[in-house]
Amino acid sequence: MNDKMPDKTDETTILATLLKQCGPGGDANPITLPQGWTQGRTAFGGLSTAMAYHAASHIEVDLPGLRSAQIGFTGPLFGTLTAQTKMLRRGRNTAFVQSELFGDKGLGLHCNFIFASQRETDIRTHQMPEPDFPDLPRTEDLRSGPEQFFTSKMEFVGKRIDTNVKTNRLTRWMRLKDREGLDPIAEILCTGDSLPPSIMGLLDKNAMVSSMNWQINIIADHPETTDGWWLIDSQTHHADHGASSQFMSIWNSDRKLIATGMQSVAYYT
User: Fold this and answer.
1) What DSSP line would sit under the chain, residue for residue?
2) Rounded distance, CA 47 to CA 177, Å?
3) Nearest residue to 73 via CA among 27, 120, 40
4) Cα–Cα dist 142/155, whole Å
5) Counting beta carbons within 10 angstroms of the beta carbon of residue 202, is it exposed (0 to 12), middle (13 to 18) or buried (19 or more)?
6) pLDDT given for residue 24 in this prediction
């Protein structure tokens, strides 16, 4: 963790400071969406999810770790953002928390977060096939996106998607430039939606796509990786009638599975 006081000139604290502005519960702390954190006409989905998670995780002081999240991208988020949270149910081991983000045009994100304590079990299984793991990126190969787009806040190698290659699967190492002091779960949520929907690998480059929802399950008890690198893997397994379904997974630098996910994506051809 970074023990320095936040400083507007210190780029390593900007994102962590932004999330902290959500405050405990979040609903009384409006946030102006920073420039460069958008995708199209809305806030980047990873950032808005991380904001909603931060607000939810501070609704009570003794919540267990996050195990699962259901995220609905209900509308565009821009301008002044506010988070509203609600404890749906708190049991002995599990807490269900609703967290929503509102922007200048009303509700833009609806999330249900499930926080659950770890339990010992006699049954363990691991059936997720590993993707192909490219070497960790070298500093001299790194690039970022244009300043007005959320990819300017990230680093990766090459293009996130090559429209000249038709494929239903995208796999890339991605990391945040600004990650000092972040809750590892917030970092994963912010990074995990950083690839284009994998249906784009099958469409013409001018086709429009829009993620409608995102289910993510946290697998690792204590997520960590080398130098902020997370391998994001996304594979479209069904597409028809303007809607595609994709499986997703997030891996660390030691090839350990960190999270699994699934998205429904609308596409327009």
Assistant:
1) ---SPP-TT-GGGHHHHHHHTT-SSSTT--EEPPTT-EETTEE-HHHHHHHHHHHHHTSSTT---EEEEEEEE-S---SEEEEEEEEEEE-SSEEEEEEEEEETTEEEEEEEEEEE-----S-----PPPPP-PPPPPGGGEE---TTSGGGGEEEES-S--TTS--SEEEEEEEES--TT--HHHHHHHHHT-SPPGGGGTS-TT-EEEEEEEEEEE--SS---STT-EEEEEEEEEEETTEEEEEEEEE-TTS-EEEEEEEEEEEE-
2) 13
3) 40
4) 6
5) middle
6) 67
Q: CA separation (Å) from 197 to 29, 39, 55?
A: 31, 13, 26
Which CATH number applies to 11-117+135-268: 3.40.1190.20, 3.30.1180.10, 1.20.1540.10, 2.40.160.210? 2.40.160.210
Unique residue bearing structure tokens 């397994």: 237
43: phi then psi, degrees, rounded to nearest 5: -65, 150
Would you say the pTM of this structure is higher than 0.85?
yes
> Alpha carbon 87 to chain centroid distance?
22
**Residue ranges covered by each domain of the chain:** 11-117+135-268
User: From first to last of its 269 residues, what are the pLDDT tens digits of the chain?
Assistant: 333 333 333 434 678 888 888 776 666 678 888 889 998 889 999 999 999 999 999 999 899 999 999 999 999 999 999 999 999 999 999 999 999 999 999 999 999 999 999 888 888 888 888 999 999 999 999 999 999 899 999 999 988 887 778 899 999 999 999 898 899 999 999 999 999 999 999 987 678 899 999 999 999 988 999 999 999 999 999 999 999 999 999 999 999 999 999 999 999 88
